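Every protein is a chain of amino acids, and every chain bends into a shape of its own. The protein below has been through that process, and both of its lines are reproduced in full.
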Amino acid sequence: MRCRFRCDNNKILTLILASVLFISCCCVGLSAESTPASNSTSPLKYLWAKAYYIPPETTTEESGYFSLCEGKNGKIYIGTAAYGRNSYLVEFDPATEEFKIVVDTHKLVGLPLEPTGYAAQSKIHTRNFVGPSGTIYFGSKQGYPTPDEVKTGKIATYRGGYVMTYNPETGEAKNLGMPMPIDDPRIAKHSKSIDANTDIEGEGVIDVTADEKRGLIYVITSEHSYWMLYDMKHPEKGYRLLGPKNEKEMEKRYLLGQSNTLVDRYGRATVITADYHIARYDPRTDKVTLDNLLLDGKPIPELIADQIKKYKYADGFDWRLAADGRTAYLVFLSDLRLFKIDLGGRTGRPVKGFSVGNRIQGKNPDSRGSLCIAKDGSVYSAIRIDNDTGFGRGFLHHLVKYDPRRKQMMDLGVFAVKNPEFFDFAGSSRPHHGFHTLPDGTLTPLHYILSMIVAHDGTIYATVLYPFTLLRVTPEQIQLNSKK
């Protein structure tokens, strides 16, 4: 009896241990942070990301734009678009995986909280700028007329966008006013709105960049892309116009695409003009200078002539400044190449840059708001290409890394969602056409990745439209894919 009892107990113990091991393995396989098993039928290398549904009450069309940053506190901040109604700055806490609204634009600036149509501050479109103090600088702009406004032809007047700040440490948000409202006397008398919906309207805000060391804020407006300067030490002076300089020039767009200001190590603010020159403002001389910009020895219209023939906005670009304060990296909307530019030279000389190579091989590239630079100097970007693999249809969004030290480009794989249940694709009436499923069942972005950052710990965050989604790729996943 004693021997038999021992044997039975050993069997029971073995069964218990086996069961625990089985359950543990299952749990690991289902964990939100685990990587799904690779599917041998797919020819693609997947970059597994966890998806988070951005609160639907902060959008109307499940959309947002370039507005994404990491605060000094390690939390992520996202700007949203609620057309005809409002816009919001939303905080995501990676530790708790929870969202909360930290800035209600209309509440902050004193506008109605009920829908006001085209008059609303419908978008936070700015590339949220984080200063050394931890303050986040951003702005609001116009959206689109509502269906009722289009139907009746009675489109509400948009009076202009606001510059705002948010301090995560104190929770304080500030309204720094309108750079160029509709009644600003500097607006040209014969100025027509560009890509907008009314003849005359106030300017929205598309970019806010702060130079806290010198107490300056640089603003770019939308849709004319005026370049403006705000002195934080003398707010009573309002917003000074850096360019253009005359009324005739104000009738057209001043800066290229949806531009952003870079402040180099000398404190010079730098932008690219609509006629493809480098414009610099130097606080030491209080002057704006213009210099030629040459990439691979060519001006931009010659460099991307074929792309511009296909798509009139192909010269839209994205650029970021490296830690040395003089090297800028740039990509164009519809181009495969990554360019490296030296902004450290003297004025009066051409600013030169060169291609470090194609980020990937593919047809009909599309790359928006995704260029970012890690602490180690690695340059990341997301790029969409046609899916011509024969494995499914549509498009594929790749994460690409460039290592400046090794001068090496690396395709880290196709963004793939490891928790496809994050959104009710089958039952929701909200727009959700921004993802598609590949033949092996993998969920992946379809249309647009509109913003991307690399956090201090190497985590990649990106936003996808329809539904408005935050993707999170761990450093471990990036390291794993770097070895494949």
